[in-house]
Amino acid sequence: MATAEPARYWRHPSVPGLDLMAARFRGHAFSRHSHETYAIGVIQQGSEVLHVGSDTRVIGAGGITCVNPGEVHTGQATGADGWAYRVLYPGLDLVSAAVRELGGPAGTPAFHGEPSYDRQLAAAILAAHRAAEQQAHLSSETLLYQAIGRLWLQHGTQAREPRPVRAGAGRLELARQLLLARMAGPPSLDELAAEVGLGRFVLLRGFRERFGLPPHAWLNQERVRLTRELLERGIRPAQAAAEVGFVDQAHLSRHFRRMVGVPPGGYLRWRAQ
Description:
Structural class: alpha+beta
Largest sheet: 5 strands, antiparallel
Number of strands: 9
Order of helices and strands: EEEEEEEEEHHHHHHHHHH
Strand content: 15-25%
Shape: globular
Radius of gyration: 21 Å
Helix content: 40-55%
């Protein structure tokens, strides 16, 4: 029997210190509490009212809110329809390390409390959250750090421009070669950055500048290219998906169609004409 207020809470499969929640609440009201972590949420439907200290924040659909560690707050719906949202709970160490890489100050980072309706930022947070439901570690970690970086640069209380640290071409080429060599089981973003001797944000920025895409998107592009070769050699789509590192055939078909325009079966029929 389905609950009237479904909620799921879980830990990120590959990022230490990151919990997540996806929920749909109507009558539920949070009592006064605080977190040891940040709480970064995006309202997807309805609206929520937060009381943070003496501050009252009403956040509607598409709105983003960030509660800093230790801030006592409550939360409840503004009406009978309730609200649906996704929340990231990154720990202090995770956010502090990311902010330092972006040129932020030492110490505990903080974010402005005013709700934001920045569509690009909301999309980045939601993409990172959804990716964490899958086992594609490189993709989910890349999207996570991009979201935290964007949030800091736009809403950090001491936001500043990133330091102009540049990645050398040799290290970026090494990252590319590592992704190709370990396509079926790629390293996580942290592992890749450590192996080539770069910070995560320096790697992300440099890789995109040099190869046109962030690492996870570039890897999926290469997977699709190799899949086309395998299909033309008579390999079945399910086997090809496993060989190149897609989770399953449906995962392959989704990316294949985005890049080629047709699913693998349609591609084979077209090649047979």
